[in-house]
Every structure is written in structure tokens, then in C-alpha cells.
Amino acid sequence: MHAIEEYNPSRILIDPITQLKYIETDQYQYRKRLLSLMRYLRDRETTVVGTLTTRSDDSGNWPEDAESLSDGLLDLTNGAAGRRFEVKKHRGLGQEAGTHGLEIRAQGLEVYPRIAPQQRTTPFDPNVLTSGNDSLDALLGGGIREGSVTFISGPSGVGKTTTGTQFLHGVASQGKTTLGFLFEESTDQFSYRAEKLGTPVGDLVDRGLLELHGIEPLVRSPEEFAQLVLDAVERRDPEVVLIDGIAGYKMSIRGADMQLVRRLHTLTRTLKQRDISVIITDEVGRVTGVESPTSAGASYLADNVVFLSYVEQAGGMERMIGVLKKRLGDFDNQFHRFTIEDAQGLQLHGPFETAPDITRGLFDE
């Protein structure tokens, strides 16, 4: 009180406020002293910030005392999901429900609120976006719709990123802006591999039509990643956003599959309402055939599902591509052979004509 009278502060930090408990003889005296202190500071119109540590094995009721006396309660946790931030109480003003991303870095504390999609206010009249690959566009009935979500699913190494890159290149080549967020490789590696396959993404980057972001999943929370995407969207106003590597996105969430679906739902819905087409590459576990269109039960999010897989034939492996789902418009419902060739990229070679077991990964002519 002497210090307060001398300096007349507008804000006071007591760290931790529970230390006051140990200079009182019992719980009653502690609560009485705390109430007296709070009244004194309120009368002076002084803002008080107090910290307290909670533990799962605490048996005393002092945390509840502190909560009942407070106008606001901010809960910080650090567990399997990383650092999280929740406003449990904010008297008279309210708060955003749920937990939010929290990081402590060199520049200080960073909070990333959970995003919430808004209702569409513009008429729904989508245009068709083409990939620039005539065979792939024909497979999709002309292309994908503006403001749609497309999953490109398949096992590791089958060509999901190459297919997604084809759409980025095709749209950017028409003078429209595109964004790529890469969870599985650096921007340099992505660009080098695309150039080797005849997709000159470097030129598009230089012209400002393609912007690439390499994402380290264990460094960023899902809220921070969502904010990074939305900041880039505000700055560049893209037609297409590619999220390359749903497995990496799941690592950033560090939670169950249902959490992945909820976070993806919120992000993709927010982008769709801006008429942005979202392309997501998704790795499934089965190497041959079709077991599930997407991992983690995320297929309901997709307006389009392009499925890539391997087919076993005479002891060898061939690649196949097909469209399993398209909400708007017709599509070719046959599986086609395809190859990925140096300097030519994705090449489709027509459908498998008689293949009763192709969805199980087998093909006999």
C-alpha cells in the first residue's frame, strides 16, 4: 500500500497472487485480506493483473476464490496440443468461445484467435477453372468450379503434389493469382521438382502470379496457420489456394482426426465464402486400389475428389487416376492410366477399358 500511495500506478501485476495465501494464518484470513486489497485497488480505479498456477492435484479452494473475485479470467495451458489460450470470463464485455493458438517468441506473446466463417452475402454463380491439361480437365468435366474444395487423394509418391501443381500453373498462366502452402517440402524443392517436370512455376513466382509458403507443422498452431493463409489472401486476392499435405496440417493440430476435420471445415468454408478454390492433397494409407476417398473422414468437406492410386499388373505397377466425386457438373467416371514424365509432367493415356477389380488394385487385360 505504501508503494501504491507513492507511485499511484494505473496497473499492478501480482505474480503470483496466491503468494498472499502463505502470509495469512488460515483460509478465512487469506480471503478477507484479498477482498480488502481488491476493494482498495478498485476504489483507486487501478487495474490489477494477478497470476496463479493451477494443478490437477490441488485440494484447496483458493483458485475458486481468485476466480470469484475477478472480472476476467484468462486460462493458459501447455500440453499435447501445444500452448493454448482461452478467455473463460470477461465480465461486461464477453469473449470468443473456445481455445486459441498461443506462441511465445523473441518478439513476445502472440495470440491467434480461432477463425469463424461468416455467411455468404454475394450470389453463388461460380466460373470454371481449368488446369491447362486438356486430358485432366476432360476427366473433370471441363475443370473445377470457382469457390469449391478439391481433395487430391492417394498413397505416397503417386503424384498428388504434381496434380495440384498442374492446377496452380494452369490458373496462374491465365493471369490469375494463386497461393501454395507446402507442409511436406521447401519452396525451393517444390519449384525445382516442378521445373524438372515441365511446369515452370519459377517464372510465375517472378511475375507475382504464384506465391509459395513453406510451412513447418510443429512450429505453428492451426490458428496461426489459418491466420497466415488469411493474411496472404487479403494481400493477394487469389483464385486458388493449394494446401499440400494434410498430414502435415494434422501434425500442427497434434490432436484427433475429428479436430482435423473441424479445423479444415472452418478454414475451407471461410475461403469458399470468398469464392476461392481450395485444393488439398491428402495421403491415404492403402497403396493400391480404393479403400477410402480421403483420410480422417474428411470427404464430406470436398466438392470434388480426384483419386490417384497404383494398379498391380503382371508383377508391375501402373498409376491410375479417377474422379470419385464432383458436386457441380458432370465428370468422366472411368479410371485412366497416367504417367509423370520429365519435361512433360502429368500425362493421361486413356481409361482402363475392362477392369472389374481395379478398385481393389488389380488389373488383368
What do you see in this structure?
The structure is a single chain. Helix content is 29%, strand content 28%. It has ten helices and 17 strands. A hairpin with a 2-residue loop joins strand 5 and strand 6. InterPro entries: Circadian_clock_KaiC-rel (IPR051347), KaiC-like_dom (IPR014774), KaiC_dom (IPR010624), P-loop_NTPase (IPR027417).
What are the main properties of this structure?
single chain; 28% strand; 17 strands; alpha/beta; four-stranded antiparallel β-sheet; Rossmann fold; P-loop_NTPase; 2 domains; helicase activity; nine-stranded mixed β-sheet; ATP binding; Circadian_clock_KaiC-rel; 365 residues
What is the arithmetic mean of pLDDT? 86
**Strand adjacency order, main sheet:** 11-10-12-13-9-14-15-16-17
Can you count the beta strands?
17
Quickly give the CATH architecture of the largest domain: 3-Layer(aba) Sandwich
**Biggest sheet character:** 9 strands, mixed
CATH top level of the largest domain? Alpha Beta
**Assigned CATH superfamily of the largest domain:** P-loop containing nucleotide triphosphate hydrolases
Helix content: 25-40%
- If you consult CATH, what is the topology of the largest domain? Rossmann fold
Distance between the termini: 90 Å
Shape: elongated
Unreliable runs, pLDDT <50, ≥5 residues?
none
